[in-house]
Structures are given as C-alpha cells and as structure tokens.
Amino acid sequence: MKDTNLRIYLDNAATTWPKPPAVATAINDFITQGAANPGRGGHGLSLATGRMVFDCRKKLGRLFNVQDESRVIFTSNATQALNMAVFGTLSPGDHCITTSMEHNAVSRPLHYLQGKGVEVTVIPCNSQGELSLGRLQAAFQANTRLVALTHASNVCGTLLPVQEACSLARQHGALTLLDAAQTAGVYPLDAELLGVDLLAVPGHKSLLGPTGTGALYIGPRTELRPSIYGGTGSFSELLEMPDVLPDRFESGTLNTVGIAGLSSALDYIEIAGLTHIRTHETALAKLAWRGLQAIGGIKVYGTGDGAPIVAFNVGEIGSTEVAYILDASFNIATRAGLHCAPWAHQTLGTYAQGVVRVSPGVFTTIKEIDTFLEAVEAIKQEMT
Ligand SMILES: Cc1ncc(COP(=O)(O)O)c(C=O)c1O
C-alpha cells in the first residue's frame, strides 16, 4: 500500500477525509464506554446513549436553525433521506418538478415513480448547470406537489437559486425538497430563511462525520408517509407507526456509533464556523479553477464560483485515464466518470468523456492544490 501520509485527497465531495481527530476519539469512547441501544431500555447506559443522540439532533437543529429538533430524522446517508422524502410525499396523479443537475439519489426514485403514475418535469439547466427561474415558474401545474432540487451540483459545484425556488413553490402550494449533499457544512442551511420543507443532508461529507450517517429535516407544512415500518422503542402496543416525531420515521436501531462521531464533527464545525470553512474551501477551489485555466488546453466546467468542486478535462483524454494517472503516478485522489449524475453530464456536454472532479476539504492546503496543478500540467505535456 502507498504511504497515505503523502496522499493528496481531493475527493471530499464523495466523502470527507481526514475527519477531525476528535471524531475518531468520540467513536472510540462511545463504543468502549457503553454503546447501549437508545430508547430501548430504562438502564443508565441506554439513557446515556439517548442523551447523546438527542444532543446530536439538537446540534443539527441549530445548523438548520429549526426550533423543534424532533423534526430532524437520522438516516444512514443523504440517499435514504431523499428517498424518504420523495416516496413519502408523492402519490400517483401528483406532479413533481426537478432539474437536470440532480444526483441519481433524486432522479432514480423519481424515474421509478414515473412508472407508477407520478408526472415528472425535468427542467433543463444551461451548459454551466444554472437553473432559470423563468423555466421553473412555467413548469408548475395545478397538481404540482413537490419541487426536488439540488443546492449545488455534485459534478461542477454550480449553485441553484434555492431560496427563490422555494418561494415559487410556496406560491404554487407545492412542497420543496432540497438536496444539500454538497452544501451542508459549507453553506448556511437555515430552513426557515430558505423556506424549505424537506432538507436532506449526508453526515459524512462536509459535516465531517463518519459514513453511515445522514439526516432529513421535515418542516411543519409537510405531511410525510413513513417509508420504513418497525420498532421504535415507543408505543409498542400499537400496530400503527406512532405519530410522534422523530419516532415515526426512525424505525430500527440507530447508527449510534456513527451519531457519536457526527456529534463530535458538528462541534468542530460550530467552533471553526461555516464562514471560515467556506472561505477556505472556495478559495482553494478558485485556485484550482484558475490554475487549470492558466495551463491551457484544459476544459473547466460550471460557473467557477459555486460550491468547492472543480470539474475539468485534459483535452480529449478520457477522465478516468487522467484520474488514474493522478492517483497512480502522483498519489492524488480525485474522481472521474459520471459521478452518479448522468443528467448533469448531458447538461454540461460531458456525458461521453465524463470529467475529473476535484473537491478540496477543510484540511486541504494551498500547497496541495499547487502540487495537483503541477501534476495536471505534467500529464498535459506528456499526453497531448
Ligand atoms: C448531490 C448529491 N446528492 C445525493 C448524494 C448521495 O449522498 P449519500 O452518498 O450520502 O447517499 C450525493 C453523493 O455524492 C450527492 O453529491
């Protein structure tokens, strides 16, 4: 195995690494000092785990600026949160509006539901991934129940006008589902200010928690059907799912080990501050964006001023080949191909070639971006 100390990790959009050291400590402490099942027993260890889970829920509630943290539901990733929202709101005969920049975590459930009688309108974004509000406005129908859109493209970082989109949805009596997979932990996500009804986040990307964590915020306007039925540790005498939150949407044992890590990661973010994190990461992305353009012969995609994600290609060389060389010869981790977002690649005109995606994180340094740029320049000299 290569020396991971020398590795430059630029794949934070897939999952962040490294995590703050306190995250590993919190996981270790939890699992060694009493990892009992919360809400499943009256003994001290179960109650202590319940308090730990409650604390983490509260921290997420603060992040989303919501009063009632019981509306924050733990999930195992953003995909589960998005599926719960899509399947829990849409019924045959409903209409859903979405965009051509969505991840498969949104487009696949919608495609499935299309086959079950849900009408879906996909608004094409422009070649930089930007959404036209005029097109969105024109897409509403009398039966529009949901607008499902990403906050930032996971392919090129372009930000969508989510506050305006939420406002339009409200005017038309529709709900909004925001996929904040690429913005949670980097941009403010004030649910009230954004006017969003359903907010899905992964815990393992910029929230800096471990994999196997995520959350769905369910706003007070939203009537959601549960997607998973089972034990909640409460109202065990009922055959129906309890009405109370979060129990209604949290059947089965929670990923308490992951939540212990996520809770510590949220402390890190609260102390570091979103502004500091965003300023750092977007400055590095800009450095990469400008540096790639300065090399010449490199195609760079998106608006260049969105979430800290940079998508590029070296001439006509396949993106997978470039990412392979970056990894094998330079020990630099990036991600190539279609990034689970085929519509986005059709929109950007990169469906055949894919792109190499570079995503700095909170621990990435300027020197690492400089080394990455030197590597791309060397690949370009060698191969074109
Ligand atoms: C925009 C977007 N939505 C959803 C997801 C799915 O996230 P998860 O892997 O946590 O399920 C991703 C993951 O990359 C993403 O980038």
Question: Could you please describe the fold and organization of this structure?
Answer:
- The chain is globular.
- The longest helix is centred in the C-terminal third of the chain and has 22 residues, at about 275-295.
- It contains twelve helices and twelve strands.
- The protein has helices spanning about 20-35, 45-65, 80-90, 105-115, 135-140, 160-170, 190-195, 255-270, 275-295, 320-330, 340-350, 365-384; strands spanning about 10, 70-75, 95-100, 120-125, 145-150, 175-180, 200, 215-220, 300, 310-315, 330-335, 355-360.
- It folds into two domains: about 5-20 and about 275-384, Aspartate Aminotransferase, domain 1 (Alpha-Beta Complex); about 20-270, 3-Layer(aba) Sandwich (Aspartate Aminotransferase, domain 2).
- Helix 10 crosses helix 12 (about 365-384).
- With about 375 residues, it is an alpha/beta fold.
- The strands form three sheets. It has a seven-stranded mixed beta sheet, with helices on both faces. It has a three-stranded antiparallel beta sheet with strand order 9-10-12. The chain has a two-stranded parallel sheet with strand order 1-11.
- Helix 6 (about 160-170) links the parallel strand 5 (about 145-150) and strand 6.
- Pyridoxal-5'-phosphate binds near residues 78, 179, 182, 202 and 214.
